[in-house]
Structures are given as C-alpha cells and as structure tokens.
Amino acid sequence: MPTTITIRDIPDDVYEKLKKQAELHHRSINSEVIYTLKRMLECHRPDPDHIIDRARQIKQQAKGTVTMQQIQEAIDQGRP
Question: Which residues span the domain enclosing 36?
C-alpha cells in the first residue's frame, strides 16, 4: 500500500521548477515528485571499492613501466 509523506519548506525556485516539469510531462506535481524520486533512486552510483579494485586489476595487467624521460620523449615527438 502506498505511503503518504509531507515535504516542508520547499524553496520557491525548486517548487517552480518541479511545477514546470509536471506541466511539461502532463503530470500532477505529486506524480512528478514520485517520478523524480524513482529516477533518482534508480540511478546507479559506482561503488568506490569496486572502482579501486578495478583500477588495481588494470594496473596489474599493465606491462612494464614508463619513465619520466620516456614520457618527455613522447611529448617531444608530438604524441598525446
């Protein structure tokens, strides 16, 4: 069963943007709030531990090392 919540002290500019979005999508403000909340909650943020683990894997797969001199030579040759 759906739950009812009350949101207080919404800044005027946020309310106006929400109202315009609701009109644009032919929704009530309530429906627009629900849609926006769902969209935000479904947004997948990468897990920092996963990113670090992946970076470590890539680092281990990298072959050899590059010295500062080699980097400078590549720059001098016009390579990015």
Answer: 1-80
Q: Which two tokens stand for residue 42?
A: 């479904």
DSSP the chain: -----------HHHHHHHHHHHHHTT--HHHHHHHHHHHHHHPPPPPHHHHHHHHHHHHHHS-S---HHHHHHHHHTT--
Helix axis angle for 12-24 and 29-42, nearest 10°, is: 100
- Overall number of domains in the chain: 1
For 4-15, the pLDDT digits (tens) are: 999 999 999 999
